[in-house]
UniProtKB/TrEMBL annotation:
Family recorded in the similarity comment: Belongs to the shaker potassium channel beta subunit family.
Keywords of the record: NADP, Oxidoreductase
GO terms under cellular component: cytosol
CDD domains for this protein: Aldo_ket_red_shaker-like
Keyword Zinc: no
One of the record's GO molecular function terms: oxidoreductase activity
Signal sequence coordinates: none
Domain NADP-dependent oxidoreductase: 16-315
Entries under Pfam families matching the protein: Aldo_ket_red
Protein name: Aryl-alcohol dehydrogenase-like predicted oxidoreductase
Length: 337
């Protein structure tokens, strides 16, 4: 079963393996399969579920809400996000303006079939809206009881600091950040993690298996498996292609003895690795089959000895991306970019 951790400096506990439905629900898998995956997560002790209004242009929220029907609401932690375009993509269908936030939270609640979300997250930083406008809108949502906590995603250290200062003045706190983080992508370690620790913010990390590369199923010198994420033109392929280099894939295969020593699969090793970081509250996992959920949950509670973590570092070497500036480089330059 899954262990639990506090979210930032709050009193909210979340399952350290959190179920996310970014690419799968509403686009990659049929709704009945998505429902079976959600139920497998519940059976494994996962109580925390993460989605966003932009996933499959709102369809993912609807699928998740339907899959959770009949569950005791108080026993769940439901997260969603706002920023990216939804609907027909009009000028106010994106960003973190007061208008878009207020309209979006109501739409998310309706699709999820709930009166409130446990965590409402700014999916990216909005360079076109004054930060105080965004923070005031979040404060009002908290006061209205539509969200219990506020988080962000892929914010830089400076953005986190500015946002937290405004939030505290408005009577709430940012409790979480949702960045990409894995054995191969460690750009949050130099700046975001230390700043977050200081501010009482923890990480809910996405892509802990580097879009599937760290599962070991992609082999050097071999074509990508049919039906894998690397062949999914609806979203998966564009995110994974940067890792599909033989020098990276060779190093991933070299991790097998480490995984074997711990009695883990490569995927379980990858998820367990991100959970060794004390600033990480949860690792987001997705699934296209219920069995994948049960396998990933086995990473919960695993402790990787320091000597094995050092060996992982040696094996991966310069295949690891560590440059702190990558967070800002990956951010949208404008709402529509």
């Amino acid at each position: 079963m899954v262990n639990y951790r506090y979210l930032g400096s709050s009193g909210l506990k979340v399952s350290e393996i959190t179920y996310g439905n970014w690419i799968t629900h509403g686009s990659q898998v049929e709704n009945d399969t998505a429902t079976r995956c959600v139920h497998a997560a519940l059976d494994a002790g996962i109580t925390t579920f993460d989605t966003a209004d932009t996933y499959a242009n709102t369809a993912a929220e609807q699928v998740l809400g339907d899959a959770l029907k009949g569950q005791r609401r108080e026993s769940l932690e439901i997260f969603t996000k706002v920023y990216f375009p939804t609907g027909p993509g009009g000028p106010n269908d994106t960003g973190l303006s007061r208008k878009h936030i207020m309209e979006s939270v109501n739409g998310s609640l309706r699709r999820l079939g709930t009166d409130y979300v446990d965590l409402y997250q700014a999916h990216r930083f909005d360079t076109e809206t004054p930060l105080d406008e965004t923070m005031q809108a979040f404060a009002d949502i908290v006061r209205q009881g539509k969200a219990l906590y506020i988080g962000v995603s892929e914010w830089t250290a400076d953005q986190l600091r500015a946002g937290q200062e405004l939030a505290k003045g408005l009577g709430f706190r940012i409790v979480s950040n949702q960045p990409q983080y894995s054995m191969l992508w460690r750009v949050i370690e130099p700046e975001v993690v230390p700043t977050s620790s200081e501010l009482g913010i923890s990480q809910i990390v996405w892509s802990p298996v580097a879009q599937g590369v760290l599962t070991g199923k992609y082999l050097p010198g071999q074509p990508v498996p049919i039906g894998s994420r690397a062949t999914d033109t609806n979203g998966g392929a564009q995110f994974i292609k940067g890792w599909l280099r033989d020098d990276v894939l060779d190093r991933v295969q070299a991790l097998r003895p480490v995984a074997d020593e711990l009695g883990l699969s490569l995927a379980q090793l990858a998820v367990a690795w991100v959970l060794q970081n004390p600033n990480v509250s949860a690792a987001l996992i997705g699934a296209s089959r219920p069995e994948q959920v049960a396998e990933n949950v086995k990473a919960s509670g695993v402790e990787i000895p320091v000597e094995l973590r050092n060996r992982i570092d040696e094996i991966l070497g310069d295949a690891v991306e560590r440059h702190a500036g990558k967070t800002a480089e990956g951010a949208p330059a404008s709402r529509l970019s």
